[in-house]
Amino acid sequence: MLDHEPPTGAYKFPSSPIVAEDEPHPDRRERVENIRAMLEYCFPDENRYVEPPEADHTEIERVHDPEYVGWLETFCADGGGRIEDTATGCNGATADAARYAAGAAIAAAEAALDGSKTVPYALCRPSGHHAQPSCADGFCFYNNAAIAAEAAVAEGVDRTAIIDWDVHHGNGTQAAFYDRDDVLFVSAHNDHGSWHDEYHPQEGSLDEAGRDEGEGYNVNVPLPPGTGDRGYDRLFERIVDPIVSAYDPDLILVSSGQDAGPADPNARNLVTRDGFRNLGARLRTLAEKTADGQFALIQEGGYQTSHLSFATLGVFEGVLDRRIDLDHYGYDDPFGRFDEPTALVDEWLEEAVEYHGQYWDWDSVT
């Protein structure tokens, strides 16, 4: 997964004559290398690595069109490159990396279901939640969380909940399960809308709530820029906890993108290490309440490579009920320096509560 390398340019975009030196694409291998270093330093006794198998075509094609899978493999075999006018690109190693990333997500879901009470974590690269059934999108090629959920369904799991706290809308996961009720999808994200008419038509709006049997089971929660620790706690209190509790899943998968942090160049939110610690703790409690403790974390975004380590440490501190006293930093976040505008967050969350109330009885689930 480290060998996947998108093309350089002006940040995530093609080169520009006003930028003298190209820079690495934000989906850099250092992202996951830093997370691994954090895990080895902070949790040396608890930490165990398992090499995942590659996902095979049967597993991938439960989500993705065979024609698209064939196109991606050919495109990468020819050396890859930038996909038309998008910010997504790849090299010759990307198709293999994406198969291993999907395989890691499947293995994490299987580990969650095996009764061992571990905390399965798929350190995936490339990420997956933007990848749609028929196209790559948003640095993603195969939808790791969706493929893992389909693998669970194939093993007889009746209800799976996917919670996506990546700061960007999980449009590919939405597309995969939009007309189904056996997979609940809850996505909290900045209100960025569609960023490409062809490759990213979904907007992540409240009214993209599913269709047919899936109506009401696609729960989008747009968040205003500047949402921080308090806002995400309120998000769980008002929406995530009640809806997931009412759904009562057998398995919870988390699209765990830590790009809602205050230093991320690809986002505008203010969640600190402490806020991610709270998300991890809330996830653990919710899984114990609803899914017999069965949950798995699947890595998505996070593009400030140093803060990604602090934020992901927070998630693991929460799910493991541990606090790590770091030299020079203690329990703090060196990037957490802005106050959160709370009134707008409350206003938007209550709008989401009102909208989704047509599908969920808040009186019975709060």
From TrEMBL:
- Tell me the Gene Ontology biological-process terms attached to this UniProt entry: epigenetic regulation of gene expression
Keyword Zinc part of the UniProt annotation: yes
Molecular function (GO) terms for this protein are: histone deacetylase activity; hydrolase activity; metal ion binding
Domain called Histone deacetylase: residue spans: 25-315
The protein's matches in InterPro entries, at most eight in alphabetical order, are given as: HDAC_I/II, HDACs, His_deacetylse_dom, His_deacetylse_dom_sf, Ureohydrolase_dom_sf
Q: Which family does it belong to?
A: Belongs to the histone deacetylase family.
Protein name as it appears in the record = Class II histone deacetylase
Q: Could you tell me which species this protein originates from?
A: Natronomonas aquatica
The uppermost taxa in this organism's lineage are:
Archaea, Methanobacteriati, Methanobacteriota, Stenosarchaea group, Halobacteria
